[in-house]
């Protein structure tokens, strides 16, 4: 089944404790992206990647890091989480060009205390 | 700069009645337009898209959307609502000359269908 898999789905952590949210896709998509969803703000893009070893900032990159060492994986790293990073996070993938339809993961709900 | 607006935070409709979820956009040139749906505890799922051609686009679960270039709108519609249509709906837009990274999402509209 074609899918984007995120882990963990739920996480409660404390300020300053480094964490990684993994994202993996099995559709050989070049493009991958991370979004955060907050009430009233819709989806805001954090980072994206157009291909292996190619990453770039989205609209709200502060406090986050990403890497793209393999085509299928695009982990989101919070080096020192803060309470304002409490949010629902989505990973998505899609074709690099054309009328791209994105496939989303099920989401990761992160709470930073 | 491109943008997309969903003017209603919530839409309430009785089951069996027609529904409309509004979306307006701003983008240079002819846009790519999308609707996605998010059910509770799930990721966004693709519903339909407009690229070119017929202004009325049909998608999954009986939904359709009408592209109106003069009004820069792409409203989502369904002739007869079901309780199971209750979900959060997102409109999205992209300039066809930009890359996948430039897909912009609206703030979402929560659709509530009462029995």
Task: Describe, in plain words, how this protein is organized in 3D.
The complex is a heterodimer of chains A (113) and B (115). By secondary structure, chain A is mainly β. Chain A contains no helices and eleven strands. Chain A is 0% helix and 50% strand. In chain A, the strands form two sheets. In chain A, strands 2, 4, 5, 6, 9, 10 and 11 form a seven-stranded mixed β-sheet that branches. A four-stranded antiparallel β-sheet of chain A has the order 1-3-8-7, with no helix packed on it. The mean pLDDT of chain A is 94. With 115 residues, chain B is mostly beta strands. Chain B starts with a strand and ends with a strand.
Task: Give the tags.
heterodimer, A: 113 residues, mainly beta, seven-stranded mixed β-sheet, four-stranded antiparallel β-sheet, 50% strand, globular, B: 115 residues, six-stranded mixed β-sheet, 12 strands
Q: What is the percent of helical residues of chain B?
A: under 10%
Helix count of chain A? 0
**Largest sheet report of chain A:** 7 strands, mixed
Q: Structural class, judged by helices and strands of chain A? A: mainly beta
Q: From the alpha carbons, calculate the radius of gyration of chain B and give it in angstroms.
A: 14 Å
* Measured distance between first and last alpha carbons of chain B: 41 Å
Structural class determined from secondary elements of chain B: mainly beta
The total strand number of chain B stands at: 12
Strand tally of chain A is 11
Mean pLDDT of chain A: 94
Distance between the terminal alpha carbons of chain A, to the nearest Å?
36 Å
Would you kindly provide a brief summary of this structure?
The complex is a heterodimer of chains A (113) and B (115). Chain A has strands spanning 4-7, 10-13, 19-25, 31-38, 42-51, 54-57, 65-66, 76-78, 87-94, 103-104, 108-112.
């Amino acid at each position: 089944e074609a899918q984007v898999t995120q882990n963990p789905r739920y996480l409660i952590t404390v300020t300053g404790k480094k964490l990684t949210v993994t994202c993996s896709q099995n559709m050989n998509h070049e493009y991958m992206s991370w979004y955060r969803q907050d009430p009233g703000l819709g989806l805001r893009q954090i980072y994206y990647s157009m291909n292996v070893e190619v990453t770039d900032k989205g609209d709200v990159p502060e406090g986050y890091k990403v890497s793209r060492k393999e085509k299928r994986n695009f982990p989101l790293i919070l080096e020192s989480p803060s309470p304002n990073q409490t949010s629902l996070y989505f990973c998505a993938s899609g074709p690099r060009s054309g009328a791209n339809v994105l496939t989303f993961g099920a989401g990761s709900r992160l709470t930073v205390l | 700069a491109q943008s997309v607006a969903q003017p209603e935070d919530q839409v309430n409709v009785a089951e069996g009645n027609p529904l409309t979820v509004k979306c307006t956009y701003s983008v240079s040139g002819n846009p790519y337009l999308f609707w996605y749906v998010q059910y509770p505890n799930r990721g966004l799922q693709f519903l339909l898209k407009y690229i070119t051609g017929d202004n009325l686009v049909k998608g999954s679960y009986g939904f359709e959307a009408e592209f109106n270039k003069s009004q820069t709108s792409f409203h989502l519609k369904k002739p007869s609502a079901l309780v199971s249509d209750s979900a959060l709906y997102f409109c999205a837009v992209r300039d066809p000359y930009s890359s996948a990274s430039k897909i912009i999402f609206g703030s979402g509209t929560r659709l509530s269908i009462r029995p």
